[in-house]
Known about the structure:
Layout: H1 6-12, H2 16-19, H3 24-27, H4 35-44, E1 48-53, E2 61-70, E3 76-86, H5 89-120, H6 125-176, H7 182-212, E4 221-224, H8 225-235, H9 237-242, E5 246-250, E6 257-260, H10 262-278, E7 285-293, E8 296-303, H11 310-315, H12 337-347, E9 351-355, E10 364-370, E11 394-398, H13 402-414, E12 418-422, H14 425-434, E13 439-443, H15 451-460, E14 467-472, H16 477-486, E15 490-493, H17 498-506
Amino acid sequence: xxxxxxxxxxxxxxxxxxxxxxxxxxxxxxxxxxxxxxxxxxxxxxxxxxxxxxxxxxxxxxxxxxxxxxxxxxxxxxxxxxxxxxxxxxxxxxxxxxxxxxxxxxxxxxxxxxxxxxxxxxxxxxxxxxxxxxxxxxxxxxxxxxxxxxxxxxxxxxxxxxxxxxxxxxxxxxxxxxxxxxxxxxxxxxxxxxxxxxxxxxxxxxxxxxxxxxxxxxxxxxxxxxxxxxxxxxxxxxxxxxxxxxxxxxxxxxxxxxxxxxxxxxxxxxxxxxxxxxxxxxxxxxxxxxxxxxxxxxxxxxxxxxxxxxxxxxxxxxxxxxxxxxxxxxxxxxxxxxxxxxxxxxxxxxxxxxxxxxxxxxxxxxxxxxxxxxxxxxxxxxxxxxxxxxxxxxxxxxxxxxxxxxxxxxxxxxxxxxxxxxxxxxxxxxxxxxxxxxxxxxxxxxxxxxxxxxxxxxxxxxxxxxxxxxxxxxxxxxxxxxxxxxxxxxxxxxxxxxxxxxxxxxxxxxxxxxx
Length: 515
């Protein structure tokens, strides 16, 4: 390091003399992960940002912004680094979401006040025009703010999902290694559960935003609600078994049809059943019934868990609500799940209700949906990865983050495939056109040429045989549509499970690429 300012010395708690002349990677938290980025800046001349969360779990995050200092020929001769320390990353995210909500409410209040002023000045044309102009400007500003919030949420999801991908891959690798060490097996299970939990929080946050804007479109079919209950119980099996719960099911002998989106109903039922399992002490009981009641299809989920106080019953479906017992955050969550359940059920024309006789006396959640009189249910296919993949594939993995590349290479190799790596768009194009690969998993946010541009160029230059699968931390419908338009055959949102990789690789023929 050749120069440091006073703020930097204060941040690290060291004197200027102790820092000058010392190697960057030895003095700065997380600096070794930045060394490849420094090389990238010298090579490309472009600024980069980087975030590092303390791996020891202290909830401290270091945020880096790095940009080149150019010589007279506009070539990088040094790198300028700015650092920010966030002491409580998780709490900062919660505070940010609460601030966004409060800002939205204040904006709504401002709009209502403007409308009242507009009405009171209706008789004065000059004033009316002035107020209308002000109102239009406020609405335009609200739209800009709202768009920025959506862009921020999408960026936040991307930045969180990117590091989750190699962590999830590493957890799969540990499981496939079949270690006989009980501590390793236990650690692997913990890592995988917590990665899935964080990914679920990200998805719930984005789903709530989309619902509030009316951007979620239901793909309705004639759905057997009883079969959906059985699927949801199966999905919660690991959590139920870990808590040694007894689950009793009381389902109708025939079908119980509703007009609903299977994915969203599965989401509702999984949320409610997993909540019952999480908030019921070990060895508890969960009783689930599904039945037709008059013109309604009704699911009741009753547990012997911690119960709900009267005040909690009134606010349990509110955004960011947390019942008293969860203030210690032992079960995690941002208070999004039940709000999402309520909104999804209401999108289907139904209602959800919470009941409890008080603390320590268990809870009951009731979902009511309009029932269909006589209709055969659609077949909802369950995606189950094959036990083994018969055909080894030749795979190209493209990602500019080394941890992503290396964990995917190891995981796919352990699954019996041959893997080649590329770390930018130009290299991806060359290897996809020359390597004779069956499939390429391509990250979207690549240097030089991004994933969309790389896919389009591969297709333009005759790379029609290779199956292209987009991997991205951006998982909005518009992101998936853009990937297909660019020439990808499918889009997977990070982190991706080993089962999904197996499923895709076992059935490449469905993409209709000539082999």
